[in-house]
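## tool: complex_structure
## caller: assistant
## args:
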Amino acid sequence: MTLAKEGTSYYVPHGSRWPITGAVALFLMMGGVSTWLNGSGAAKWIALLGLVALIYMLVGWFSDVIGESEGGMYSAQVDRSFRMGMSWFIFSEVMFFAAFFGALFYARQLALPWLGGDGAGFFSNLLLWENFEASWPSNGPAGVGGEFQSMGPLGLPLINTIILLTSGVTITVAHHALKDDKRNVLALFLFLTLALGFLFVGLQAYEYIHAYHDLNLTLESGIYGSTFFMLTGFHGLHVTIGAIMLTVIWFRCLKGHFTPNHHFGFEAVAWYWHFVDVVWLGLYIFVYWL
Amino acid sequence: MSTAEHHVADHAHDDHDHGPAKGIMRWLTTTNHKDIGTMYLVFALIMFLTGGTMALVIRAELFQPGLQLVEPAFFNQMTTMHALIMVFGAVMPATVGLANWMIPMMVGAPDMALPRMNNWSFWILPVAFTLLLSTLLMPGGAPAAGWTMYPPLVQQTGDAFPFMVFSIHLMGASSIMGAINIIVTIMNMRAPGMTLLKMPLFVWTWLITAYLLIAVMPVLAGGVTMLLTDQYFGTTFFRADGGGDPVMFQHIFWFFGHPEVYIMILPAFGIISEIIPTFSRKPLFGYESMVYATASIAFLSFIVWAHHMFTVGMPLAGELFFMFSTMLIAVPTGVKVFNWISTMWRGAMTFETPMLFSIAFVILFTIGGFSGLMLAIAPADFQYHDSYFVVAHFHYVLVPGAVFAIMAGVYYWLPKWTGHMYSEKLGKLHFWISTISVNVLFFPQHFLGLAGMPRRIPDYNTQFADFNMISSIGAFVFGFSQLLFVYIIWRCVKGGEPATAEVWESPAGLEWTVPSPAPYHTFDVAPEVK
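## result:
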């Protein structure tokens, strides 16, 4: 605001205690979890304290940003910074998932065939894993984790696909309603989106219980279990975060935030939601289907 | 300022010309790109000395054959920690610090685009390195399997294991946030008239570096996450009995690792491309080809990674593909070296400290580039792999390469930051001692490697004794001469001959249009670029 008088409208905040709070929170969290993994049970409370501090930081930081946004301090240029920042953040998330998809492809296309005697793997197969034939799904030549059944593409995963695709439609309807200033439609369809999101997470939890209890498919079921649970698990975590974000903007919509022309917060969440949607399609094709 | 309304009201009453806050809170809560740049640079210097001390432990042990000073296990901890600290704690934060200080001034922006996130990405770093360094005191000691963390060896790490993994997650988060900030600043905050092809080359190289960072740091995070779950939660990503493959980790690691080496060198290219024109008193030769060469190097960096793995067992087609793609990198790199030399050709050259470091960079980095070309030849690499030749190669591109460029940049911009000239006499002394000792340190390592001395080993055959002793002498001279660098900076901060706005003779760039020291806020009103 004062900056505007000086001839530029770019808002530069004067100091904030949230970043350093976040750094301390991460220290407690990461240090706590590490000590916990080393066998000190009490350390989990330090990790929990760190998590609470991190949530406190996120709430505080976002409150400041929302307050500044509603206070009209963000020019079109600031808005553009946020858009670019969010896009690149989502790109970094894409690359994170790429590592796990890469591991899946490598294991299926190269590692397992080699263990089965393909190409230069002939001798290691003969000497170490005789009679092992590569196939998918697999828990490796030693059958790590015991016999298991894999998760097929029909049933729950198909329902989940439909749920996520539908939520992609509902959030688009909500976005158009926001642009047309139809606040009731906006609130309804945004609520539908987040409800579908949480439903997806619930069904995914149910699927995990089914896998552990009925299929003997666990995180320890060799490379199939590893890739299945790490890919769907990180995706589920991202859906959960996305659904929480949807809940936040739903409450903001109910409070009357966002205008037809100025609603970056809404769009950021929508982009994120489409991102988890697209990752799911990759998962559905390569983890459940093929 | 916990409630938004309060914040808004508070801000409206702010006097715009206020300086920094007082005391420690200035540094903890700052959103100013100059403050944050300073913190990055100071942090990098502390880490440079820490990692350097570890290097001296290594060279002290290798001074003579036999085991004299440290246990082999501790020696391995030193090699591992030295690398992690120098890569993630010294070189990368130093270039981010330079970016923070210079990019907003170079593009005519009031600050970085996302100032609060800028603060966070810095303060995560001390957290990450506190976690990492604390492992030195733990049962089992610090990580000792090398900075590449190959399984299954790395799975023998003691209590340090989760600390190593999580500190790498944090370094990655810090780098990604820093990189996002830099891209957004460059793409969205340029002054009117500053078109993309008018940007200083340091800005260009950082733009491309930031893109590399965002593309590969998450992949490293994924890789170490798999290490963590293999270790504690029973997954088998890197275990053949469960259908995984330890070599898969090497692929994931080097998909990150190769772009990572360009992340360390591209900003250095940018710094050198700023300095050489100034002291040659000529514009940079082939500006656009520099931009395209940088982009080409960045693109190629994604398709060469397995040249680090020629000896682990790969199909022949893979060996050939990665050999030829690696050799291709020599083309854009050659363009750059040609352009730097052509810039100097028939220039009215003077040899102030930044220029001396830059010229040394061009020559010594090129030596490192040539040994890299040798290593790129797959059949030859079977001989060189994991030998001291590799150590000599990457230290040539990183020490008289990246580190010299950073030092050149520090000397070049120090008067702009402090408002004082540094001591040219001491600067030149620092340059000559460093340049001579760095060659005494690393050049004999080529011979050691070619003669068959393996890397990461605390003891060696007596045939390697002479060159190891020479190398260690060079190491100690180089190491202690860096205290001179610290002294020169400290003296320059405290006082000295006042610097003019231009500092040097008609240097190009917006940063030289503001007074020295640069005011706390620059370009609140965007300058017009013709």
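## assistant note: DSSP finds 16 helices and no strands in chain B. The longest helix of chain B spans residues 72-107. Handing back to user.
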